[in-house]
Amino acid sequence: MKEQNTVVELRQFLNGQWVPGQGQQVSSSAAAIPERTLAQGAAATAAQVGQALDAAHAASADWAATPMATRAGYLQRAAAWLRERAEQLGAELSREEGKTLAEGIGEVRRAAQILDYYAGQAERDAGTVFQSPRAGEQILVTHKPLGVVGVITPFNFPIAIPAWKIAPALIFGNTVVFKPASLVPLLAMRLVEALQAAGLPAGVLNLVIGPGRLGDAIMDHPRLAGLSFTGSTGVGRQLCAAGAARGVPVQAEMGGKNASVVLADADLELAVEQVLFGAFRSTGQKCTATSRLILDADIAEDFLGRLTARLDDWVTGDPLDAAVHMGPLVDARARDAAQQGLERALEQGASIRYRGAAPQEAGFMPPIILQLPEGPRGRENAGWREEFFAPILSVIQVAGAEQAFAAAQDSEFGLSLALFTTNLATAICAQQQLDVGILHVNSESAGADPHVPFGGAKASGYGPKEQGAAAREFYTHTTTTYLRG
Ligand code: UN1
Asked: Any idea which residues are catalytic in this one (predicted)?
């Protein structure tokens, strides 16, 4: 692996200037080599968060009055900037977060695609005109920005998730205070650099890097008009409650415990490949990852035989090595937390059906398949209930589609579900019966396109969904105008 030894100076972006933080020292390191520091500097303080919100507020009237086509230009230029540097930034992402180089480069390109998609909003409808029951009248529904929007993002998609919140916030005329996960500040800084290079006016986008409690400083600030959050269900619900108390809309994308259901009539080769990707790509660190596997008993042994054979060739190691399929978890703390979850599952009667090979150091963990106990005990097991955010796949067996759907529904979460069947009627039944935000028929549980709604049911989501036409629902409020000439 080619190593550069430069440590990036970690800075805050306030009112169009890169400035040092005034808080405690923070740093990020390589996921696979924790002793290697990648970025270092002082965290933002609550006072600096206040400056960020004040700057965003001061910029907000001019930004809202800027034509959408002009706002789109900034996003397009930032997209081009990212695309030109996709390989280099993808390598930075891979090194810091731990996903493979291909996934890192893919994520940078995806961020560019998201920016371009929202730029296209300038050529879409600006609202809706309704018929009026009264003569000589039209009813217009138009959209206005909320004002200053807070964006709080997790470590697992260090640039794509920020892009899919910041791009719609900006295109719809909001100004932004962005707080990324402090484990992955590098790509957050790159996204801000891209928009700065595009000429974005001062104050429109502000970046504050630091510990989680900065999120409370954003939430509590009187200028805040909306908050979009992706992360754990616990933190998301606290933010939703705080927002409700203040009348500030909050959009929260939270946990998942997504099932893949493989029925007896499925194309097994396809299902094996898609479950492998869904469960183990990005080391299982996606809210859309497959972590429950529900197999029809008729094909269960055949399926597991094929899946474990594929896993025998699955290489866990240095994420920058092209031969590697799976890097480490983001850090040793994440690995230890997943390890403890695994131990709880084992104490509660689960057994290890498969454990792959992995380096011992840093946050490395091998791919693991857990067999849960039969009957209701299986569905009380930590392997069924808890989101480990790790390459651990918990398996149960059922008899037929009806039992499979009942098992799939038996979860606090409702983000994504992958169903493998060749029977169209069964697929339609799943669409009607299952409380999930995203249903994949014959494809893996992870993945999202920018032009369609993304988000979950039950404990997985709160507030309007993200992406596509859904984004406008969150980032704007409407005025209904009864217009008579
Ligand atoms: C994807 O499946 O590619 O945090 C996107 C997450 C989700 C995004 C998933 N909010 O994993």
From this structure: 253
